Every structure is written in C-alpha cells, then in structure tokens.
Amino acid sequence: MARCTSGAFLGEFLIMPFESRALTANLEAIGNAALPLAGGKGASLGAMLGAGLPVPEGFAVLTQAYRDFMAENNFDESVRHLVEDVPADDPEALAEVAQALKERFLAGAIPPHVADAIAQA
Q1: Could you point out which of 12, 59, 69, 84 has its C-alpha 20 to 30 Å from the C-alpha of 6?
Q2: Per-residue pLDDT tens over the stretch 68-100
Q3: What is the dihedral sign for C-alpha 15, 50, 121, 102?
Q4: Domain boundaries along the sequence of the chain
C-alpha cells in the first residue's frame, strides 16, 4: 500500500518520499512542513519526534485518505449543498447543519483501500 517509510529535513522544508496518492505516513517522516498532508496533530507529532522528544511510534492518516472517503461516499456535493446557504450568524442553523454533517460522516463507509492502508501502517 502507499505509505511513506522515511523522510528528510532540508532547512525548513520536509522532503517526503510519498507516492502521489499516499494514504498514511510514519511519524518520523513528517513534521510541521507536512501540515497540508498530515494535519495539525500528525505534523506536530512528527516535528516533536524530529526534535528528539519522546513520542510513541505511530503514523498519520494523510489528507488523501480523507479525499478518498469523501469521494467514496459522494459527500463533496452534498456537504457543499448543506453548508452553502447557512447564515454564519445563526447559531441554531449552524448547530443543525453540524449535526447533519456529523451523522453523514459517521454513517459513511471507509473505502476498502483506505482501511487496508491503515491496517498495514
């Protein structure tokens, strides 16, 4: 499965040997520069590990896995439709939409290739 097994820092930039559709990455291969790919928690844990701080072994689920989840469940258009007309100054409407989104996401199916990548990470 697509996953990163190593990475190297060059100044402030992270060199990540990810395949273009990588779904997971080992924490030691990511850092703060990987925020768009690994999210805040993954990037922070990777940076802490890179700084020599004690961090348990682990991996991050990358944003490509999220995009695949969204596509598998045809959420892109339905989510856009739910949120496009909600007034930002209406807390009740925002709460209703948030609840509807939560229910859709919890009912969504994780694509088999994403589940496999996570199991193999």
Answers
A1: 69
A2: 999 999 998 888 888 898 999 999 999 999 999
A3: negative
A4: 3-62, 65-111
